[in-house]
Specification:
The protein is 36% helix and 11% strand. By secondary structure, the chain is of the alpha/beta class. The chain has one domain: Glycosidases (TIM Barrel, Alpha-Beta Barrel). The chain is globular. The two termini are 33 Å apart.
Length: 372
């Protein structure tokens, strides 16, 4: 991340105050934070203990769309919590078992293997797109949720590690044909030769076309949500990099065009997992990433609730490097600074086994949320 304070005076306070590893004690109310959420499962342990979500300052829960039930949604709403679904967009690997033609093709002309276990899908496969749109609509129709967040909505890759795996894809006949038809650019008939062209003299056109493909998926998701559950929010869990990280990989490799997707989204939820991504001793990195995103998209944190928002999801559970309990307040401090207007913790699935962290989360959430 390269973000000198001098280039963005309006955000100096958000970035230049991030040097301390630990947050001030105690945290003060933050009326700009409308959402204090848990991600990654139904918090049965809290409810069974006889406590309420409000005892921990929690006012929203994010669950995978496959774990939603009518009973769970009702119980959470009885607690006064908003309920959001996480929706797997481009990582439904089971689909490939019966549709091997949906596997992304690499520069060799062969199917690209999973990137360290992460299997993406070709974005132009019409059957897969229809399959995901149907599942998306079904989730919205069946459950009275307050919103739905796209997850893994990017090209085949594994960026959720300190050293990302970013293969170039997809060079299948279907993608090559659509690219040529929609751009008017003629490619060599051999897929390997075409791939070389696309990664050299036609690279700019190729990157733009791929970004447009993924953005068009977001457009369709938006249209389905507006017809099926108007008023619900559409968000996206996405890579927290800035534009030039890893040699412009956000656009060039992952096919994420933030500004293009912004016209269809209500909330961006970057995933600045500081411990996982090589910043275990620097929670301030979280605030620097959200500050950059706010600058890039023109979001200050003072917008009306109906406008585009940033709700980062921050790491409290141990994944890769561990997150010590002493760091919980610092992580939440940096995750809840403007331009963020909400903060989500990752992830209940393992955090439920760490009561000390849960208590620290609750203290912080209650302190910052006492006025809203």
């Amino acid at each position: 991340m390269r973000f000198p304070c001098a280039v963005a005076p309006v955000l100096v306070v958000f970035v230049c105050l991030c040097g301390s590893t630990l947050a001030a004690d105690p945290p003060s109310p933050r009326p700009h934070i409308e959402l204090r959420a848990i991600y990654g499962g139904f918090p049965e342990e809290i409810l069974k203990s006889g406590k309420k979500l409000s005892d921990y300052g929690v006012n929203a829960i994010f669950m995978g769309s496959g774990s939603l039930t009518t009973e769970r949604v009702a119980r959470l709403k009885e607690q006064g919590a908003r309920v959001f679904a996480e929706f797997n967009s481009m990582h439904e690997a089971n689909y490939l078992k019966e549709h091997p033609d949906a596997v992304p093709v690499g520069v060799s002309g062969d199917a690209e293997p999973p990137a360290d276990g992460w299997q993406g899908v070709c974005p132009t496969h019409a059957g897969y797109r229809s399959h995901r749109m149907t599942a998306f609509r079904d989730t919205l129709e069946r459950f009275e949720i307050d919103g739905i967040w796209l997850d893994y909505h990017h090209a085949h890759a594994n960026w959720e590690r300190a050293v990302p795996l970013l293969p170039d894809t997809c060079f299948c006949g279907r993608c090559l044909a659509q690219f040529q038809k929609q751009t008017g650019i003629t490619l060599e008939p051999d897929p390997k030769s075409a791939a070389r062209q696309l990664l050299s003299e036609h690279r700019a056109a190729w990157v733009k076309w791929r970004c447009d493909v993924f953005t068009d998926w977001v457009r369709e998701y938006r249209s389905i949500l507006d017809r099926t559950r108007p008023g619900a929010l559409l968000g996206s869990f996405h890579c927290p990099w800035d534009l030039d990280d890893f040699e412009y990989a956000l656009r060039d490799k992952l096919a994420i065009d933030l500004k293009a997707q912004a016209q269809y989204l209500d909330v961006f939820s970057p995933m600045p997992y500081h411990a996982r991504f090589g910043h275990a001793n620097d929670p301030a990195w979280i605030a620097s990433q959200t500050a950059w995103l706010g600058m890039y998209l023109g979001i200050s944190g003072a917008e009306k609730p109906s406008q585009l928002r940033i709700w980062p999801i921050v790491q409290l559970s141990d994944w890769g490097e561990s997150v010590p309990v002493e760091q919980v307040a610092a992580v939440l401090d940096h995750g809840s600074r403007p331009p963020a207007t909400g903060v989500i913790i990752f992830a209940w699935g393992s955090l439920r086994q760490q009561p000390a962290k849960i208590e620290e989360m609750g203290k912080f959430y209650k302190a910052i949320g006492s006025t809203n």
